[in-house]
Write a structure and sequence with these properties.
Number of helices: 24
Number of domains: 4
Structural class: alpha/beta
CATH class of the largest domain: Alpha Beta
Number of strands: 25
Shape: globular
Strand order of the largest sheet: 2-1-6-5-25-7
CATH topology of the largest domain: FAD/NAD(P)-binding domain
Oligomer: single chain
Bound molecules: flavin-adenine dinucleotide, iron/sulfur cluster
Distance between the termini: 16 Å
CATH architecture of the largest domain: 3-Layer(bba) Sandwich
């Protein structure tokens, strides 16, 4: 087990230098992963200090490397950071080469302090910290090099640098948020859009439906409020669309004879993998079971949250790259999985999602009564323009976003009374707070701490539900308090239709019986977390079929990972991802956001709220309900709240 020789990380000093190895703290106790890309971590130098595992590490050489990287990443807007980092790196190099003097040490300290105190952004403010700590705590390492006694070469060390930010680390696709916000602040919306497009074509889509985990990692949050990262993205995408930014985009189509890749499913994971692979020169075909591409973006999420012209324009970007999307073709039925190899595909990406409703375990749910419509079926039919027979009153069961989509859609379809049944209390509801508020405003009746026991019928049609009241017991594996039925508290709810929306499961019938693909206990595909490679060489998988019901941005992130691994697989026969992705995963485990490390900010400024269509107007139909930011002045002002908390880290292996 890796032990901490010395750590000053996050201001917590742990000094194991006088201890024997066994007495030193395990690295794990600092929540720092001890391995990176299968190799042992020897040291980590970064924005929050120093972590040294291997006492033999040449710290001065590693610091030199760190400052070379700072110099490269400095935007140059402030002289102390750009010039100071070069001066520091040069002096450290002089010392490493055995040509340093004591004056160099005092000079390094002075310049380090100057850069820290006079830089304009967090990159310059935080970068000198490990140097200043090393000068205090590891003087002897510097002096050993000054005397020339230990002028070791730094060649044997492997360095993995990374520039990130708490928000960027929180976004599963690691979109360069500080960079696109900076472009928005300057009014360069095209560049802001381009930064997002490095990772995905679905920028306007994410700007509407992303659950924005980046914002929970925003350093402004503990100070006043997180930056509206998602809505800034939406603005850049919408502005680009209005101003025809894609007009001159030069799309290159895969060359004749390029390696072919097959993708199963045209949801966000499949579309994103195709987008990345096509840009790498592969000939990509997506097979989609439904008549339309988009996956849950098209047949799940209702159009009042994601207008279809926005989504379709982004799907068109993928098609313009030469990607062929073949709809109405179900792998496993129309084409068997193994046939794809015979058809000449050299790699396969499975992105088939979860399209079956999970069972409630309630009497009558399998009886096929008219008016009993599983949530994903209800939304699919509605989104494909087919009619659902709901009657005058409906009960939606569940407390997540899918349940909210079903209930809010039912209101828009003209159902008089929409009930929502949830077995825990409002506090435990997994749906977004904004969705719950909107549902309340739209007149949906919430029945908390209630659960269906039996679906009631008359003449083969739903006539109501027998429910039971619940109370909350001890927390379960999810950390939420377990709902427990209260004996004798049964009650009847009279409704014309019931829509269960408590979760989704995968239809795995497309996997041949003799397949070596491995499944998890949850009925999802097992993959390598880094490369998304399955147990079968050449087959990769991503999105909900791997994670279970999760989010659009996680599907996108996994597809980007898989695309990189597929590219390497087709070039070298080995499924690997590059250093950037390896480091990002490492930082995800390590955590970049620390509430206690809020950078200095001047003046509290609340974030701007978006325009929302008035309730009476929005429930009349499926026009977009949330309107985002309309004016450049609003987005420039919101982007101006960002304090650019860039974080630079260097792993030494
Ligand atoms: C109602 C609803 C609302 C949601 N709201 C949000 C939200 O607001 N924000 C958010 O981040 N996430 C949301 N999600 C979750 C999000 O939509 C999913 O996490 C995401 O779509 C998963 O992407 P995917 O590409 O893995 O799968 P999917 O989007 O499910 O796409 C899979 C595609 O594969 C096709 N397919 C399946 N089997 C086969 C086969 N054998 N052959 C060919 N094609 C096949 C399917 O038809 C489908 O088109 C929501 C989900 C639902 C159901
Ligand atoms: S203030 Fe800006 S850079 Fe800092 S975490 Fe928030 S969005 Fe990211
Ligand atoms: S995609 Fe989502 S998580 Fe990533 S930056 Fe945009 S809003 Fe944040």
């Amino acid at each position: 087990m890796a032990k901490v020789f010395f750590s000053s990380w996050n201001g917590k000093f742990i000094d194991g230098r006088k201890n024997i190895l066994e007495e030193r703290l395990d690295l794990q106790q600092l929540d720092i992963p001890s391995q990176l890309d299968g190799k042992e971590l020897r040291a980590f130098i970064g924005w929050a200090g120093l972590i040294i595992v291997d006492p033999e590490v040449n710290l001065v050489a590693a610091l030199k490397e760190y400052f070379r990287f700072v110099q490269k990443e400095s935007c140059g807007r402030c002289i102390p950071c750009r010039i100071g980092s070069k001066v520091i790196a040069d002096r450290l190099e002089k010392i490493v080469e055995g040509n340093g003097t004591e004056d160099d040490l005092s000079y390094l300290r002075e310049i380090g302090k100057l850069v820290k105190e006079s830089s304009l952004c967090e990159l310059g403010m935080s970068a000198p910290l490990p140097l200043l700590q090393a000068l205090d705590e590891f003087k002897e390492d510097f002096y050993a090099l000054l005397s020339g006694a230990n002028a070791v070469s730094d060649r044997e060390l492997v360095y993995h640098p990374i520039l990130t930010a708490p928000c960027r680390n929180g976004c599963p696709a690691h979109i360069d948020i500080p960079r696109y916000i900076e472009y928005i602040r300057e009014g360069s919306y095209e560049k802001a859009l381009a930064v997002n497009r490095e990772k995905t074509p679905l920028v306007g889509t994410l700007g509407r439906v992303c659950v924005h985990p980046c914002e929970s990692n925003c350093n402004r949050q503990p100070y006043d409020q997180a930056i509206s990262i998602r809505l800034l993205k939406r603005f850049a995408a919408d502005f680009g669309r209005k101003n025809d930014y894609d007009r001159q985009t030069n799309y290159s189509i895969a060359a004749k004879g390029a390696d072919r890749v097959a993708i199963i499913g045209a949801g966000p994971a499949g579309l994103n993998a195709a987008y990345q692979l096509a840009q790498k020169g592969y000939a990509v075909t997506i097979y989609e079971a439904l008549p339309v591409p988009g996956g849950m973006l098209t047949v799940g999420i209702p159009s009042y949250r994601l207008p279809r012209d926005i989504l379709n324009a982004e799907i068109d970007l993928v098609k313009k790259l030469g990607v062929e999307i073949i709809c109405n073709t179900r792998i496993g039925t129309d084409i068997i999985l193994d046939q794809l190899w015979a058809d000449g595909y050299r790699a396969i990406f499975i992105a088939s999602g979860l399209h079956e409703s999970a069972a409630m375990g309630c009497e009558g749910e399998d009886a096929c009564y008219n008016g009993f419509i599983p949530g994903v079926d209800f939304l699919r039919k509605m989104n494909l323009g087919e009619k659902n027979e709901l009657g005058d009153s409906v009960a939606v069961i569940g407390g997540g976003n899918v349940a909210m989509d079903c209930a809010r859609s039912a209101v828009r379809l003209g159902v008089n009374e929409v009930n929502l049944i949830y077995r825990r209390s409002k506090k435990e509801m997994p749906a977004n707070a904004d969705e719950i508020t909107a549902a309340e405003e739209e007149g949906i009746k919430f029945h908390f701490l209630s659960n269906p026991v039996c679906i009631l019928e008359e003449g083969g049609s739903v006539s109501g539900m027998e429910c039971i009241r619940m109370e909350l017991g001890e927390p379960d594996a999810s950390g939420r308090r377990r709902p427990v039925p209260m004996d004798g508290s049964e009650f009847i709810l009279r409704v014309d239709s019931v829509i269960p929306a408590i979760g989704q499961v995968a239809d795995l019938n497309f996997i041949p019986k003799n397949s070596k693909l491995k499944l998890t206990k949850r009925g999802t595909l097992e993959v390598d977390a880094e490369t998304m490679a399955t147990a079968v060489p050449g087959i990769f998988a991503g999105g909900d079929i791997v994670f279970g019901a999760r989010t659009v941005i996680e599907a996108i992130a996994s597809a980007n990972r898989a695309a990189e691994a597929i590219d390497n697989y087709l070039r070298s026969g080995r499924s690997t991802v590059g250093n950037r992705l390896i480091m990002e995963k490492y930082l995800e485990e390590m955590g970049v956001y620390d509430e206690a490390m809020v950078p200095e900010m001047v003046g509290e400024r609340k974030r701007l709220e978006e325009e929302v269509r008035p309730t009476e107007e929005r429930i009349q139909g499926f026009d977009e309900a949330d309107l985002g930011f309309e004016h450049p002045s609003a987005v420039i002002s919101e982007a101006g709240r960002c304090v650019k908390c860039l974080r630079l880290g260097l792993a030494v292996l």
